[in-house]
Each structure stands twice: as C-alpha cells, then as structure tokens.
Amino acid sequence: MSRRTAFFLLLVLAACTLAVGQSTPVVVTPGNSLDTHAPKPEAQQPVYVPKLKPGDLDNRPNLNEGTKMQLIRVMDAEFVHVRKYFPIGDKSMAIGPDGAVRPGDAQLFRMAQTVGAAAKLGDRVQITNIAFHEKSIYLEINGGPKKKQKWYQHIQVSGMGGAVGGTDPNQAQPTGAALTLEFKKHVPEMTGPELKELLSPVLDFSVKTAAEVFVDTLPPKIREAVKKHEVLVGMNHDMVVMAKDRAQQKVREKDENGKEYEEWIYGTAPQDVVFVRFVGDEVVQVKIAKVGGQMIVKTEKEVEVKDGVPSLASLKSSDAPEDVKGGTQGEQPTHKPTLKRPDEQPDPMTLPGGGTATRQPSPPPQDEPQWGTNGKQPPADNEQPAGQQKPPQEPPKQPPL
Predict the structure, then answer these.
(1) Whether the predicted model's global pTM rises above the 0.70 cut
(2) Residue 323's closest CA among 232, 393, 206, 193?
(3) Over the Cα atoms of the chain, what is R_g?
(4) Residue 118 and residue 132: Cα distance in Å, rounded?
(5) What is the tens place of the pLDDT at every residue in 144-165?
(6) Which residues are 279's β-sheet partners?
(7) What kind and span of H or E run contains 131?
(8) With 56 labelled, which of 159, 185, 209, 295 sits at a CA distance of 20 to 30 A?
C-alpha cells in the first residue's frame, strides 16, 4: 500500500513539473533561429512635411486659362521620383486640402502587392497627362490607370473566315496610375514651383527638368540669354519658348519681297513690347519697342543652329573666341623683310615679280646748266635765265678708232 502511494505521489510531482515547464515563456533573441516564422513589423516610411499646402491658397482667385497652359507646359512629360507606392491601374490616391495623403502607406503597400506596382518607392516615373477640374488637379503617370486605345481598335469585322479586328486583351492592360490634388473651394492661381511643392508629399521634383537639361546643353552666351529671357537672332522656336514662353499673340504676314514670316508679340503697352520675327524655324529679326518711344532692331545673326546643335554665329556675339563656330581666326599673311622706312614709297622701277625695269634718262635739272663736251662748264654768257630750261644737247660722237 505504501509503495502504491509513493508511486502515485511521484507521478503527481512529475506532472506538476511538466506543467510548470510548459507555462514558462520562451525568450527569443535576434540571433535565435526560432524567429524565422515570427511576424515582422511593417517598415515605417518617413513622412514628408510640405512647406505649402492646398488650403494655404484658398484666398487666391480662380485659375485662369493662361496659367493653365503654363502649368501644363511645366508638368507635362516631366520625369520625377515617387515617395509612395503606386498600385497599377489605381486612381484613388489623393492629396487633401490639409496636405495629407490617402490611402495610407500600409494600404498602398498591400494594394501594390496584390495588383502590382506601377512605381515603387524611389522609382522614376513620367507625368503623361494633367487635367484641371473645378476643385482638383488630376495627374497620370506612366500612361495612367486605363489603357488608352484608338477608336478603330474597337471595330470587329466578322465574315466567312472568322472575325478580324477588335480589342486584344493582352494589349489592353493598364501600365500606370493616377493622383488627384484636392482643394476646398476652387483651383486657385499658382506658379509652377508652387504646384511642385503641393505635390511634393508624393512626387520628388529635386531632379532636373527637361527644360533645365536642355538649357545646360547650350553655349554659355546662349544659356545666359535664356536665363535673362532675351531672344537672339538665329534662335529656333524651342529656344524662344524657353526664354520668353509661348506668345499670346501671333501674326502671319509677307514682307516687301513677298516672303512669308510669322511674328510673335510679347508684352503690351505701356510696357516694353518685343516683336520676334520667324522665317521657318529661325528668328531673323528682333524688334523692341521701349516705353519712351525708342525702337531697337536686331537683324545680325547671333546664333547658328545646325543639325539641332546650337552655336554662336560670329565673334561679335561672344566674349570668348572659343565660342565662335569654326575656331579661332586664321593667320594674317606675312610680309617680306625690307630696309625701307615705313613712310618711304616703293621704288617704281621694281617689278612685282622681283625684276627691275629699264630706267629712262631723266631730264636735266632746271637750275643747273648743261656740261660741255670737254668736261668743263660752258662760258657764262651761255647761261640761261633762272626758270628757263635749256634744250638738251646731243651726246658727243666718239671718234673712230
């Protein structure tokens, strides 16, 4: 009996010890191999705080058509980097009036994992479309959330041999996404840099734009003119747009020779008015009407564009000889050394080929009498008055030997 009781107590003690060991928590260190199946916390992305929010522009007037065209020119086809995940085919991402982005980072990440990502963090994308609505600005990246097709791609013709045409399901898949910038009342007036700052929580514009890359490829003289918004004779349409933007007024006329030209007009009175005349794709005349009535006309070619590569046309247009197309000036012809003084006239008897001409006998001096045949001066009574020339005498004949 005592043995059974002792054995039963041992079993109870062993059961208690096993129960206590199972309830003890297991501490897992970072180096322990048991953490392979443990759930990892989601990485927190740094939140970018913009300096300007859409709500800060509520007191401004409505956006006009001229500003819309400028913003489209600044934003369309530009390459930027993204600060958020863009799920492919999605257009729900929006920046609210308070500058907050929705959906959140976690939801955007899960959507990108489910349907695919049009762009991941830090990827470079291209803005392919921008549209203005009553209270928002809509932008598309990498083609947008919907694959655009031509009207004829929806036509399908059926016949005896089967159907021809129609939409190919393999080519109708979207490749991009969209973003909406929202305002409280209306879309206000803004500049290009301000719009980039409003979009900065999602898009990073710190990289150079296409316009900045184009300007950096120009020669220093032309680049400085573009930065000062000046037009040089010889520029093409793209350079003028970079320097002065697109003209609000254009005129097509013919000159006195019947040659067609197009004139872009910048500015209105009482400010300075600039008239830029194009013949084809080249500026041939720049006319500036000053406020005081002074008229400045430039027709001398300053820029030469050949095969899309711009260069300066003359040394007069540049401050450095290396900017001139064709290199430095040619060497001047050298002259043969001579012993003549600088003010001395050349000898008329010297021929250009280096020979000498036959010298003709010069008449005797007027104030000096002729010599006689015997080598002596003639008598004094034969002297002629001053100012009267004595006819020359024939040379004496030599006696025969």
Answers:
(1) no
(2) 232
(3) 47
(4) 23
(5) 888 666 666 667 777 766 666 6
(6) 282
(7) strand 124-132
(8) 209
Q: How far apart are CA 199 and CA 217, in angstroms?
A: 28
Query: What single letter denotes the amino acid at residue 161?
Result: G
CB 135 within 8 A of CB 182: yes
Q: Where are the domains of the chain?
A: 54-150+171-207, 212-323
Q: Which pLDDT belongs to residue 276?
A: 94
User: Which residue shows structure tokens 């530009």?
Assistant: 78
Residues 115 and 88 sit within 8 Å (Cβ to Cβ): yes
What CA–CA distance (Å, rounded) separates 274 from 291? 11
DSSP 254: E
Query: What's the rounded mean pLDDT across residues 227-243?
Result: 89
Residue type, position 145, single letter: P
Peptide bond into 270 cis (omega under 30): yes
CA 380 to chain centre: 97
User: The tokens of 395 are what?
Assistant: 């040379």
Q: Which residue has the tokens 């939140």?
A: 47
